[in-house]
Specification:
Number of strands: 0
CATH architecture: Orthogonal Bundle
Number of domains: 1
Strand content: under 5%
Largest sheet: none
Number of helices: 5
């Protein structure tokens, strides 16, 4: 297996993983967005009643659980982008440019 070091190798690994299990037929944009939403909600659960200070100082076991949920969100988001043929890096770059115009940094 090729080491996963960037979004391209992650995407390729996910393609292979899903193909080996014949899951592509289930990975429609609708289903992927629903799964992404569920995983994002599971991530929220870890911080729901935490104070800002507690959210910054996670115990090792909690941090590992959060890492798993972040991975789930990233996996579904990567698969969604792949199915829709959207380059997430290019989309993020374009969004940053839009946000810079919409929310200019204060002059100093």
């Amino acid at each position: 297996m090729t080491p996963i070091t960037d979004l391209t190798t992650l995407r390729d690994a996910l393609r292979a993983f899903c193909a080996a299990r014949d899951w592509h037929r289930f990975h429609t944009p609708k289903n992927l967005v629903m799964a992404l939403s569920v995983e994002a909600a599971e991530l929220v659960e870890h911080f729901q009643w935490a104070t800002p200070e507690e959210s910054l100082a996670l115990a090792a076991d909690k941090r590992a659980e959060v890492a798993d949920e972040i991975a789930d969100v990233l996996i579904y988001l990567t698969e969604l982008a792949d199915v829709l043929d959207i380059d997430p890096i290019a989309a993020a770059r374009e969004k940053i440019v839009k946000n810079a115009a919409k929310y200019p940094a204060p002059s100093r």
